[in-house]
Amino acid sequence: VNIHEHQAKDILREFEAPVPKGVVVYSIKEIDQKIKILNTNNFVIKAQIHAGGRGKAGGIKLVKTNEDLIKEATSMLGKTLITKQTGPRGKIVKRLYIEEVSKIKKEFYLSCLVDRASAKIAFISSTEGGVDIEKVAKDNPEKIITTKIDLTDEVNETNVEKIIKIFQLDQRQKIQAKKLINSIFRLLIKKDANLIEVNPLIITKDDNLLCLDAKISFDDNALYRHPDITSLKDPNEEEPIETEARKHELSYIKLNGTIGCMVNGAGLAMATLDIIKLYGAEPANFLDVGGGASKKKVSAAFKII
């Protein structure tokens, strides 16, 4: 399960991580009342969609007056944003996050995730914040540090130092970083998150750490333990066919190819996709109906394909 940036920041704030103050709006008429809690006339407007690359697509705007805020928000709300991650159809912006502008001195990258290969928790840190981390890994791998730790109550001093070494922080910032890293660590474990990504993590002009942007994804298999996370799902951001498949207890993932697949058994389904790709074609979907599927379930699967 993925959630919006404003929801991720609310959860980070709950775990005492430093985030900018902001408000979410679903209509233009909400703006005047909600921004009263923000202590600035300089705002950043962020389109809330489940995709990266919003800035290049016109989904992030800086404004310096309330008039410009209303003008840009009106233009952005309801707009279809097309980024590398949305595909050619794009996504319609149905909510905006209005945030106090932060004065940036430096930008870093920090993430925490479950590393299944090593059965550890991995922290990834880089001095290249605010850019695509996959591109950094490809072009400048020496600028990325991965620190893998065992599942414990907290991240100890030694591992904190390994994680933040690349940032070259002063003593006060190191204290803030230790608190932030343990906040993220606790969040990952207590909420059954798969990934917590802060990009960028910034040093402000007054030399404090701040999570300027945030992304969190959660383990679907653990949602029964977290009704609060389940309630954050945005049906507008989900693939409608996948939503329909879940109603019939079908394991379905939409892909970009042209060959439809329906298989009984996840292992066989993956092998089928591999064979299709081996021979130069692309599968349209992954669909596992499971063993002992009923006529009704198989019928629903055919309709979805």
Architecture blueprint of SSEs:
Elements: H1 5-14, E1 22-25, H2 31-34, E2 43-47, E3 60-63, H3 66-76, E4 80-81, E5 91-92, E6 96-100, E7 104-115, E8 120-126, H4 133-139, E9 144-149, H5 157-164, H6 171-190, E10 193-204, E11 209-211, E12 214-218, H7 227-230, H8 240-247, E13 251-254, H9 266-278, E14 285-288, H10 295-304
Antiparallel strand pairs: 1-6, 2-3, 2-6, 4-5, 7-8, 7-10, 8-9, 10-11, 10-12, 13-14
Overview of the structural elements:
- This protein is α+β, with helices and mostly antiparallel strands and 305 residues long.
- It has 3 domains: 21-100, 2-Layer Sandwich (Dna Ligase, domain 1); 104-225, D-amino Acid Aminotransferase, Chain A, domain 1; 239-304, 3-Layer(aba) Sandwich (Rossmann fold).
- It has 10 helices and 14 strands.
- Helix 5 (157-164) crosses helix 6 (171-190).
- It is globular and about 65 Å long.
- The two termini are 23 Å apart.
Number of helices: 10
Which regions are unreliable across 5 or more consecutive residues at pLDDT < 50? none
Structural class of the secondary elements? alpha+beta
CATH-scheme architecture of the largest domain: 2-Layer Sandwich
Fraction of residues in helices? Answer: 25-40%
The number of strands is 14
What's the number of structural domains? 3
The rounded Rg comes to: 21 Å
N-to-C span: 23 Å
Shape: globular
> What oligomeric state do these chains adopt?
single chain
CATH top level class name of the largest domain: Alpha Beta
**What's the main sheet like?**
6 strands, antiparallel
Strand content: 15-25%
Order of helices and strands: HEHEEHEEEEEHEHHEEEHHEHEH
Q: Could you name the CATH topology of the largest domain?
A: D-amino Acid Aminotransferase, Chain A, domain 1
Q: What is the CATH superfamily label of the largest domain?
A: ATP-grasp fold, B domain
